[in-house]
Design a protein that fits this description.
With 356 residues, this protein is of the alpha+beta class. The protein has a single domain, classed as Metallo-beta-lactamase, Chain A (4-Layer Sandwich). The chain starts with a helix and ends with a helix. The structure holds zinc ion.
Length: 356
């Protein structure tokens, strides 16, 4: 066999391996991508995470990389980081599900620009119209791309009623201002989207949306992490989109919401969805049962409540309690250094209110 023949043979083996990896749920990257996409081979049960550098000048119609995590089900796997100039607001996950009656989208990514590229990604997979956009909660990394869907599709936007409080708050103004400081071009044409369907019934109540042969059951999971949080069960595949009720490979963030409700919600997940095949968190890779990310996040929150509760009862000041709180077994989990202090601060104040 000559050299060219060997090269061709190796080429076809590689091509074969690549295509089988894609069929098994591997990453799919657009042709000639503008950014640098350093992606794990799979988005399910992996410790590897993306390290993408997004090109600010990429055209709006250039699809983003995505994973097929189940039949008709796609995940956009974000970096685990604060928003910065490299990830340009893609520091969380999103997804979409294709049916014969249209597309159901879960979260919108973190800027109007990413929202437009997310739409181009959907367009690269299917011609079906986007029928629903579910915003799991109001945080920027999940909801600031929504305006692209509002302007370019007829999608019905579903969100928790608490989202209305957020879009009329000062918090949104300062958050938008902050992002404009370093990713201004990605934030151009930003506007808050008023949801069409508000979820605000009892805690853990559900509302069902049907498209084709699929059902999307949206649960009100309370205000555990934001102004209002939702979890979605995708049937019949038994996939749970849990948003930020638990994180994989990332330290949780308690800046608003409620640590008590977080624990209740995590327990509710573990108690009520024994038949779930896959959980997709708002940050980190998707997971098959057993859902250790849920129990791990819950034990972190429980530990912090106990520690801060004891500090409050012992008359230790907030500053002392926060400074001395340190979980060495969490040091290697991403964003620990950044989030743990904020979490300790937040939970100390909660315990003060609960105990006195
Ligand atoms: Zn998030």
């Amino acid at each position: 066999m000559g050299r060219t023949a060997i090269r061709t043979a190796i080429g076809s083996i590689l091509l074969y391996l690549f295509s089988t990896a894609s069929l098994a749920g591997g990453a799919r990257v657009p042709d000639k991508p503008s950014g640098e996409y350093d992606l794990p081979a799979t988005a399910i049960n992996t410790d590897a995470i993306p390290a993408m550098v997004i090109d600010a000048d990429a055209p709006d119609d250039e699809p983003l990389p995505y994973y097929r995590i189940a039949a008709d089900t796609y995940m956009l796997f974000g970096n685990i980081a604060e928003v910065d100039e490299k990830n340009r607001g893609w520091n969380g996950n999103a997804g979409f599900v294709v049916t014969e009656d249209g597309v159901f989208v879960i979260d919108s990514l973190g800027t109007p620009k990413l929202g437009r590229r997310f739409l181009a990604t959907i367009r690269s997979v299917t011609d079906q119209p986007v029928r629903y956009l579910l915003l799991t909660h109001n945080h920027p990394d999940h909801s600031y791309g929504a305006i692209a869907f509002r302007r370019n599709t007829d999608a019905t936007v579903i969100a928790h009623k608490g989202t209305l409080d957020y879009i009329h708050s000062q918090q949104i103004d300062s958050s938008v201002e902050y992002r404009r400081g370093f990713i201004e071009q990605d934030m151009q044409n930003f506007a808050a989207v008023t949801p069409d369907v508000l979820i605000d019934d009892e805690h853990f109540s559900k509302k069902c949306f049907t498209l084709g042969d699929k059902r999307f059951v949206v649960y009100n999971s309370g205000k555990h992490h934001s102004h209002g949080d939702l979890v979605m069960q995708q049937l019949p595949q038994q996939i749970l989109w849990i948003s930020d009720l638990a994180f994989n490979q990332r330290t949780t963030f308690m800046g608003d919401g409620s640590s008590r409700q977080a624990i209740e919600g995590q327990q509710w997940l573990l108690d009520n969805f024994a038949e779930a095949k896959l959980m997709v968190p708002g940050h980190g890779s998707a997971q098959r049962a057993p859902f250790t990310m849920v129990s791990k996040t819950r034990s972190y929150v429980e530990r912090l409540r106990e520690e801060m509760g004891e500090a409050v009862e012992a008359g230790i000041t907030l500053q002392q309690a926060v400074e001395s709180s340190d979980y060495p077994d969490w040091h290697d989990t991403r964003l620990y250094q950044l989030n743990h202090r904020a979490n300790a601060n937040f939970v100390y104040r909660e315990m003060e209110l609960e105990l006195f």
